[in-house]
Amino acid sequence: MITWRVAVLLGVLGGGAVAVAAVLEAADPDAGSAWLWWTLLGIVVLVAVAAVADWAAAVPPAQVRLGRSGATQVRLGESATVRLTVTNRSARRLRAVVRDAWVPSAGATGPYAHDVDAGPGQTRAIDTVLVPTRRGDRPAARVTVRSYGPAGLAYRQTGRRLAAKATPPWTLTALPPFTSRRFLPEKLSRLRVIDGQVVTRGRGQGTEFDSLRDYVIGDDVRSIDWRGSARRVHLAVKQWRPERDRRVLCVLDTGRTSAGRVGTVAAQPVAGVVEGGPAEGESLAGEPRLDAAIDAALLLAALASHADDRVDLLACDTVVRASVSTSVKRSVLPRLTKALAGLQPALVETDFGRVVAEVLRLERKRALVVLFTTLDPGALGEGLLPVLPQLVAKHTVIVAAVHDPSLEVLAARRDNARDLHTAAAAEKALAELARVRSALSRAGVQVVDSPADRFASDVADLYLALKAAGRL
After folding, report:
1. Residue 161: inside a domain, yes or no?
2. Please, how many CA atoms are within 13 Å of residue 142, restricted to the half-sphere of its CB?
3. Domain named DUF58: which ranges (predicted)?
4. 274 found inside a domain
5. What number of other Cβ atoms are within 10 A of residue 30's Cβ?
């Protein structure tokens, strides 16, 4: 392939030939015209030969070895660097442009094309900074090498098939951002306080034996361990702690309702608001319900693992999308994060009968089941409520849903007739949500209905409250 330099060279030499021919034509018209055509033909042949020679002198792309190194995982919103190494395995100097292309959602910053100048046997490194915009696996697309000759008149380039074969495979996994981890120190502090309170109160529901200590005045005489005291000099009393090794199952609804975006209220006015659109103080976009549920599930899993409880995960709609059963408590968070990285909503109606059947199959013993879904009256009324009694009979159930604060904002706007109709629809939606919460509460289910900014924290608070009350 030729470059733009060939056209420039032809233009310069051809222009010079035309100027000389004009001088010769002034003296002899016939001689000047004939000289011009032969000269132009010679220039074309000369430039073509030079271009072919330059193409032959270029390093063949097949003699360029490519390799990769760098990050394989990054949290969504953070940056990672992946290095591409280019090694010249030929005996000639490599003058090339290397294009390192990634899928758009990988968020590659900077130019795709990089100039590479390497002598025989030398290696050059190209760093690409990636800021993924979506969760999941973000693969490298294709590396294209365009090798130029010494004069830059022609180049060799890898074809589509050869480029795909020569591209070193690499995948960067974008993990969930886990923004709720900022709540973890406060929740762990409360967990330690709960442990201390249970030991101080003595035995109660949801506690188990911890250790023996010497009796002091004021202790409950019913806590005296007479057998243990017989082997001691002083009386010994039993200490209790919250039960460990409880089972916590996080169930994520990945049906169509999980794809809905939950609006958030912005602190500043939104620019470009049109009549009938979002009012001042409203956000034009929110996060999907599934992302908020994943964030809350990760916080709950981290908290439960520190409490020595076992955490399992189930993501399901009409089929099981992800299932993680943990046996080693301290390694639960990395496994859950990896499993949730590529989880996406499915545009199908969730089969809650299938969800309940999977929960009963996974958890034979009593467990805390946290169902992350929506309080949609149609989905829950026809799907979940009929099968809920068999789940509540065996497990402690929490239904956690992200509340959309834009409903309150719309319900409060009554400036004109259009806003009044919108407010009526919002009030009706809020009333239906209240009826669903009431029906779930009557069925013996704990309900969390909080905005996205408090959702993960409220789910963790309810877990701590149930643990303190010994109801896990």
Report:
1. yes
2. 11
3. 212-256, 291-409
4. no
5. 9
Contacts of 174 (CB under 8 A, 6+ apart): 74, 75, 76, 132, 134, 135, 136, 137, 138, 341
Phi, psi of 40 (to 5 degrees): -60, -40
26 and 142 both lie in a single domain:
no
Domain that holds residue 137: 61-175
Same domain, 23 and 147: no
